[in-house]
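Retro notes
What went well: the complex prediction finally ran end to end.
Inputs used:
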Amino acid sequence: MTETFLTLVATWGVYAISLSAFLSCLLVPVPTALVMLAGGAFAAAGDLSVQNVLFGAWLAAVLGDQTGFHVGRRMGPLIERYAYRRRKTREAHDKARNWVAAKGEYAVFLSTWALAPMGPYVNFAAGAGGLGLLRFTVWDALGEAIWVGVYVMAGFFFASEIAALAEILEKASGFLVCLAGAGLIGWIAWNRMKTGREE
Amino acid sequence: MTRKAWRENWLFVLAFAVSFGLALFFGAGLLQEVSTFNAVKEQPLAPWMTPRYIAHSWDMPREAMMEILGLEPPGPGRTTIREIAAEKGLTVEAYIADIEAGIVAYRATTSK
């Protein structure tokens, strides 16, 4: 598996890296971390231009996120119609939409790098929740620059250890996602219990 | 926690425990990976590698590496040693063994 993807990067260069970055924004399970590290490593060896790898991966990731965002935008009215059938789901829907409209860009920003596994879902939700295109694009492009920059440069400087580095980054992102999830659930539970006591 | 609070929120408490447990699991794995990370390792040769990548990983001049690989400098660019072995009519395993022997020989001459 690892071998296959590394061979693809060696053979197709920036095209393989860009395609992988694009697809991973759309929930296709490609090992983009490894692919971007390999891009950096081949650049360090002199087989690829580091500027091309950085720009290609960044542009592809931004385009992938745009795709997810626009799919969400199209689906928004459909979700709304479904949610409006019952009062409870309607309230939850409006609350979520208001949150996305008010603070959605922070979630978009974090989901491009620190919480990268959440990216495809957040893009979709941002589109469906009515986040403005400009706000989405600016924060998304910023975050993707961090993501691509960190992975490609890590591969560049530790070119001999990209497989071990891929493991490290995968565990780190799992750790951050679970910790953020625990924090969020804990916060919701805490608030529920607090309001429950006051009643 | 009162019984009523538990009854209303047990799902949240459970979900919190699961995600926190998973975070600990990944965190422990992360620590283990980081502690065994060796940034200057010479990587065992593998079929996906390119000539320049091997030269970089083994910290050798490109010209010397091309000579070991039996290639004209500056080398074929992004071609894997699997493809080069096929062109030379060798199995990739045999080619890798040749390259390893070549690296050892090169080091023996330069360290004198």
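What we learned: The helical segments of chain B are 3-35, 51-57, 62-69, 81-88, 92-111.
What to try next: split runs per interface for comparison.
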